[in-house]
Amino acid sequence: MNKLDFQLSAIDRKATKEEVENALERYRIMLLTQELNQLPKVTQSFSLVPPTNTNEFHSSTEQVAVNNANYEMERAKYIKRITLAVNRLGYKERAILIMRYMTEDDVFDYEVYSELNMSERTYRRYKSKAFYRLAFALGIEVYAEEEEGA
């Protein structure tokens, strides 16, 4: 019998943790910027170059409207992606991430594990597991580079 033999690449735990924390911080920022709008330029500009008939925008207002619409679509897509990935986690992992990283208030680890009635050690285990599962769900895991000569 032929046996399938493959090895998974080693995960760079520290870099993966940083990627997940960055993703969750970006999520929090996206939630805060829901009503952020870029404003159009209102000063006139004159040019000696005659206008051309292309598909380019002729005013900063049109360009800003398109930019705002694109930003809103990207923001909504990102928030939905993070939310769906977190919702796929187990109850305790999901509770830790939501309480610690996905609310408007800054909450400390000790506050979260106290509220969840966990020991600090158990909390750290669940949090670590949640980070790696979330990294895989989002596709942002970082692999350690293999050493040459091995």
Describe this entry's structure for a reader.
The protein has 150 residues and is an all-alpha fold. α1 (13-32) packs across α5 and α3 packs across α5. The chain has helices at residues 13-32, 60-87, 91-101, 109-115, 120-138. It is built from five helices and no strands.
Descriptive key words:
mainly alpha, 150 residues, 57% helix
Question: If helices are DSSP runs of H or I spanning 4 or more residues, what is the number of helices?
Answer: 5
Q: What order do the helices and strands follow? A: HHHHH
Global outline: extended
Give the rounded overall mean pLDDT.
81
Beta-strand fraction estimate:
under 5%
**Would you identify the regions where 5 or more consecutive residues have pLDDT less than 50?**
38-44
- Indicate the structural class: mainly alpha
Portion of residues within helices: 55-70%
Our measurement of the CA-to-CA distance between the termini, rounded to an integer number of angstroms, reads 28 Å
Largest sheet: none
